[in-house]
Specification:
There is one protein chain. The protein is α+β, with helices and mostly antiparallel strands. The protein folds into 2 domains: 2-234, Rossmann fold (3-Layer(aba) Sandwich), CATH 3.40.50; 239-334, Nucleic acid-binding proteins (OB fold (Dihydrolipoamide Acetyltransferase, E2P), Beta Barrel), CATH 2.40.50.140. The protein is 25% helix and 33% strand. It has helices spanning 40-48, 90-100, 109-122, 138-150, 168-185, 196-202, 220-225, 230-235; strands spanning 2-11, 14-24, 29-33, 55-60, 63-64, 75-78, 156-160, 188-193, 205-210, 213-218, 239-243, 253-257, 262-264, 274-285, 289-296, 301-307, 321-326, 332-334. The protein has a 6-stranded mixed β-sheet, with helices on both faces. The protein has a 5-stranded antiparallel β-sheet with strand order 13-17-14-15-16, with no helix packed on it. A hairpin with a 2-residue loop joins strand 1 (2-11) and strand 2 (14-24). The longest helix is centred in the middle third of the chain and has 18 residues, at 168-185. It starts with a strand and ends with a strand. The mean pLDDT is 91. The structure holds adenosine-5'-triphosphate (ATP). Adenosine-5'-triphosphate (ATP) is lined by residues 11, 14, 16, 34, 36-42, 194. Residues 2-236 form the ABC transporter domain.
């Protein structure tokens, strides 16, 4: 189990991490979701030991690792651009770490070969060892990068936007493969991404990093359905967040999911529903779903999603006012959180 306790890191005036408390349990696929600049890479670099925190502690199974040299931490790192050596073959790339690590470097060629082949088999690249890394596909390069990390049997694997360099189809396939490989190995993966769908698809648990802090860390289901604060909700790209006063629901910020708001003419709101007035701006059709955008009286942009199989919105005229309404139990109330 990896734990970060009150970890902070600043660069000049920029506070990248501000007292982060975070746990990656054993044998878990953990996603870390955050916007660009949220501090995701910084967090990974501190865990790997490429940099040190200004304050706080990092430990694996209770043993402090901050302050230890990177190569003694037994932590694997897969970089976004894979960082393979272009002049080495697939096998040589994978074997590189075994041959050159500063502690316990392997000299026995048979053992190096066996372990390299086992790592390639694990990522589904048996028979590709002799190829040049320039002569394989993007997805295969990604798997070489993973094999190169796994061959050293790390205690945890850190993946920095590992699917970012792949096209959409390949990304979906690699999602499944990464999960399967992790399950076979039984070590924890910490996967950072800016994509909420990737984070929710991959993670047994998902943590949201914003403003240098972990806003929430939960199962994908709990996070998606019960975000604990406006920041967590904002990152899921599925919740409208607005002032409770707009629908007479008290003070502070509230959130209602895109799929839980209905629309009707003003004055025709069904009994027992909370409601707010808003102007219809425009719609966006993307196949199985359609998004409708509204502007509330205080300027907040609101989105409603309609699924092709269950259309529930009336014909909407751009620029016209409508009543948006929802069941009281659809709203989440955040006390004081901005
Ligand atoms: N070496 C550095 N010197 C100065 N500022 C830095 C340095 N590294 C990171 N920062 C700043 O710290 C903040 C966090 O950066 P970090 O790279 O960790 O974000 P990120 O969440 O990984 O972003 P992205 O998704 O865009 O890669 C940013 O504001 C960034 O500009």
């Amino acid at each position: 189990m990896l734990t970060l306790t009150r970890v902070s890191r600043r660069y000049g005036d920029t506070v990248a991490l501000d007292g982060v408390n975070f746990t990656v349990p054993e044998n878990t696929y953990m996603s870390l979701l955050g916007a660009s600049g949220a501090g995701k890479t910084t967090l990974l670099r501190l865990i790997a030991g490429f940099e040190e925190p200004d304050r706080g502690e990092i430990a694996i199974n209770g043993e402090r690792i901050d302050g230890q040299p990177s190569h003694l931490r037994d932590i694997g790192f897969v970089f976004q651009n894979f960082a393979l050596f272009p002049h080495l073959s697939v096998s040589e790339n994978v074997a590189f770490g075994l041959r050159h690590r500063t502690h316990d470097a392997l000299k026995n060629e048979t053992e190096i070969k066996d372990r390299t082949e086992a790592a390639l088999e694990l990522v589904g690249l048996t028979g590709f060892g002799h190829r040049a890394v320039s002569a394989i596909s993007g997805g295969q390069r990604q798997r070489v990068a993973l094999a190169r990390t796994l061959v050293c049997e790390p205690r945890i694997v850190l993946l920095d936007e590992p699917l970012g360099a792949l096209d959409a189809n390949l990304r979906a396939r690699m999602c499944d493969e990464l999960k399967a490989i992790r399950e076979r190995l039984g070590v924890s993966f910490l996967h950072v991404t800016g994509s909420e769908t990737e984070a929710l698809t991959m993670g047994d648990k998902v943590a949201v990093l914003a403003d240098g802090k972990i806003m929430q860390s939960d199962t994908p289901d709990l996070l998606f359905n019960q975000p604990m604060n406006a920041e967590a909700a904002r990152h899921l790209n599925a919740w409208n967040i607005f002032d409770a006063g707009l629908c007479g629901a008290g003070q502070g910020q509230i959130a209602v999911r895109f799929d839980q708001i209905d629309v009707c003419a003003e004055g025709q709101v069904p009994e027992g529903r909370l409601t707010l007035g808003a102007k219809y701006l425009t719609g966006e059709f993307n196949g199985p779903t359609a998004l409708s955008f509204f502007r509330a009286d205080d300027g907040t942009l609101l989105q409603i999603i309609d699924h092709l199989s269950q259309p529930r919105l009336p014909q909407l005229d751009e620029g016209a006012r409508y009543a948006l309404h929802f069941a009281p139990d659809a709203l989440r109330q955040f006390h004081g959180a901005a």
